[in-house]
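In the current project phase, our protein records have gained a structure token line. A sample record follows, to show the layout:
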Amino acid sequence: MTGLLFLFAALLAAGLFFLLSDLLKLPTLAAAKA
């Protein structure tokens, strides 16, 4: 049970990190395209 909780927490952290990097990457891409 603890391992499953840790896996879920790691997955959530990875998802949040991916979302944050995507949000930070979008403006830079828009600036590069312009």
In short: The mean pLDDT is 87. The chain has one helix and no strands.
